[in-house]
């Protein structure tokens, strides 16, 4: 078992770390507490896209269309590109790499929102899902959040992806390939000391990372699969502080990094101050 560090009590936390091979719980804190998870639900969109590519109902080289009503900016690169009619594969890669909002909306439109909403229940999850398009403004008449989830279910998603059990080995492999490009190592993954822009292969102390992050003004979430020379851990670390008068991102990120350091030590068998020979 892994002993979690002290966590800021002003924050709603949901955390679970599991052995990626056996599924045994290594550490947890309120793992069944549902949190708003920002962009994490995009994993279920990637699963639906990958499933359709494997079935042949989508082609990787098809070009996406972006309806005007779903044009958004902020996270991502596509909204800044001159040619936005990228392929389905490249749109999914943008979602995995930079959590691209515009590519996300185009792919949801392509697959259908109800179909994407159905992915998590199809995998057996009750409290976790992608719930809506990404919106420039979330008014009261719209769904309450783009995605939600619990650490118990999100850590299981990552474990099943690593085991090739998320629909099929081929579907799981496609999604992990897109997530391999994730450039956001600012949260739990900050402790792994990887190159944020180049960690598809083992990059430091034999670690290989596949993960997805989510950020809004009141939430930080990091879910992933970290393999090392000694072990592999599927993890989910979610933090919400929506009802706090203070912006708690600093203590939240400190807590997430501390959890990440425990994961890194577990999968590598090394303390942080041990230098490579």
From TrEMBL:
Lineage, broadest ranks: Bacteria, Bacillati, Actinomycetota, Actinomycetes, Micrococcales
UniProt KW Membrane keyword: no
Originating species: Microbacterium algeriense
GO molecular function: hydrolase activity
The keyword rRNA-binding is assigned to this record: no
Domain of life: Bacteria
Protein name: Serine hydrolase
Domain (Beta-lactamase class A catalytic) ranges: 15-238
Any Pfam family: Beta-lactamase2
UniProt keywords, alphabetically: Hydrolase
